[in-house]
Amino acid sequence: MSTPIIDELDQEFIDSFRSPASAGNRIRDLNPISFAVIMVACAVAAVTLPGPWGPAAICLIYVAVSIAAGVSKAFLPAYGKLFAVVGLILFVLRAAFLPGEHVLLRLGPIAISAEGIAQGLDFALVVMALCGAMTLFFTVTPMKNLMLALELRGVTPRATYVILASFQAITDLGKNTKVVMDAQKSRGIETEGGMVGRVTAFVPILAPVFLAAMSQTEERALALDARAFNSRSRHSYLVSLQPVGAAEIALVCAVAACAVLSIVGAAFIWN
Amino acid sequence: MELVSLRNVGFTYAYGDKPALNDVSLTIEPGLLYGVVGLNASGKSTLCSVVRGIIPHFHHGELTGEVKIKGRDLLEWDPAELSKSIGYVFQNPFTQISGVKDTVFEEIALGLENLGVDREEMIDRVTTVVRELGLEALIRKNPNELSGGQRQKVAFASIIAMDADFIIIDEPTSQLDPDASEAVFGIIRKLKERGKSIILVEHKIDLMAEYADRIIVMKAGRVVMEGPAREVLVSDELSQAGVPYPEVTELAFALANAGKPLRSVPITRAEARELVSARIKEAPHAHSAL
């Protein structure tokens, strides 16, 4: 006679909630608000430091931080794509169309000048530094940790839920679309092939997918209400964040001070 | 004191052309398990929504009659207070996952977080419920990637963990296999033993016969019968409402029609086993006794 298999309770996993959540990396264990301040300071420095070396250095700092944080495998390809697409387009547009005295190459109405290339490089690097700050922040910081940090600083659970649920809704919409597309395919409707065929198959399912999502939103709101989501008592948290230590405060202050100095420099020295 | 009382209650959804509930009068006493049975669209879920205050606080429409929860008029209740006092497990498992938690363990703890329960107590309560429902293998999994049956169990666990004294459970086993259904009913029995008041909507009439103290039979928005499970499950009103009898009750009726009635009409397998065993012992030739 076979005996039923009883799964063991993963006590190590349960015990992990008894201590602050840790990713096992000092950078990833920074408080999300601290890391946000650091990233904003980097972005400010990228805008105010003289180009192209200033923003280029900031971009390199992101790369170094991502390696140190152990997220380079996720960050570098994404950032590389941003550079290859957005950065390159911005550079080419600026380089091609900004007028300058030292024209290097003329192609019909397009005159590529040394000034255009310099400004294009500056502009593209600044934008890439701003994008990099965002990309690195969301690669390093789990969304739920950010929301928890915000809630602990007074943001309402309702607001943080809306943000988190919105991200989840995008994933859900994608899944639902795939389910409906598969259902269409099983009924013999052509959903693959050329662009026209795909669009023809895709457009009619948009309405049912969105209507279903709206109906599910109502049911989800009820399910949340059943979990006392609207309770006015103070919420508690299963997960806790790492305490913010003196070293972390010092780091944030130092980076913020650098940003302030770069603003002062831009105002009085190099601009 | 009665837990819930409804007097001549009717409800028509805002965009409905006919009432979903019609002249419903009921009293729900504390500490009992009430089973609600009826065909689809007979008003079972609407009745639960009224008792829980989702109607009229969330679903709007025309509510008539008088609804009192713990002696207080439904309209005087703060919806947030109701959500603490009455647990509700909904029918559709796919919309009961919050969508914002990374693991099943955290998902089950969500309600407790909202109630402000201390972390240690939260961990203990969630762990207990995980063990009771046999969810050990799921606790690390992402709730958004679970099957319908797994989601249903997690949603059920989430409400059980909140430990409300009064729980409404709407078709908790619709996505579950027989073993998992038995497990869920096992939990419901434990809740009953702990003195919880329960309203359970369920189509599995054999399980209902095992566990319900009283049964409410609904048809076309009306309560056609309410009473002790034993009375209701052998009554004509049950079949007139389109609800099947328990298997063993059907068997007893068939035997009675064949001129060989059992001493009494069983509603549970245990009762049937006893009656049939007695018949076999009494009969000189066992094979012809039935």
Describe this structure in words.
The complex is a heterodimer of chains A (271) and B (290). Chain A has 271 residues and is mainly alpha-helical. In chain A, helix 4 packs antiparallel against helix 5 and helix 7 packs across helix 8. The longest helix of chain A is centred in the C-terminal third of the chain and has 32 residues. The model of chain A has no long low-confidence stretch (mean pLDDT 88). Chain A has two domains: 158 residues, no CATH class; 72 residues, no CATH class. With 290 residues, chain B is an alpha/beta fold. Chain B folds into two domains: 242 residues, P-loop containing nucleotide triphosphate hydrolases (Rossmann fold), CATH 3.40.50.300; 40 residues, no CATH class. Chain B has 13 helices and ten strands. In chain B, helix 4 packs parallel to helix 6 and helix 5 packs across helix 6. The longest helix of chain B is centred in the middle third of the chain and has 16 residues.
Q: What's the arrangement of secondary structure elements?
A:
The complex is a heterodimer of chains A (271) and B (290).
Chain A: H1 11-15, H2 32-48, H3 53-69, H4 72-97, E1 103-107, E2 110-113, H5 114-140, H6 143-152, H7 157-186, H8 195-226, H9 246-268
Antiparallel strand pairs in A: 1-2
Helix pairs in contact in A: 2-3, 2-5, 2-9, 3-4, 3-5, 4-5, 6-7, 7-8
Chain B: E1 4-13, E2 21-28, E3 33-38, H1 44-52, H2 54-57, E4 61-69, E5 72-73, H3 79-85, E6 86-89, H4 104-115, H5 119-133, H6 148-162, E7 166-170, H7 178-193, E8 197-201, H8 205-211, E9 214-219, E10 222-228, H9 229-232, H10 236-240, H11 247-257, H12 269-282, H13 286-289
Helix pairs in contact in B: 4-5, 4-6, 5-6
